[in-house]
Amino acid sequence: MGYGEQQLKDLEERINNADCDAVIIGTPIDLTGVISINKPCTRVHYDLDEISARI
Questions:
Q1: Within a domain: residue 50?
Q2: Is the dihedral of CA 29, 40, 34, 4 positive or negative?
Q3: Which position has the higher pLDDT, 54 or 35?
Q4: Which domain holds residue 13?
């Protein structure tokens, strides 16, 4: 399931109006490919290794 056109516009507006110096993108997709971000941004990647079970 992806973002609709209005959701992308809302997300772009929210990010671009945020009072911040930079944006960290931690989504599975590269947001800069679908919206325009007016701040410095970088994309991070991560892996999750479960090391113990919940009790």
A1: no
A2: positive
A3: 35
A4: 5-43
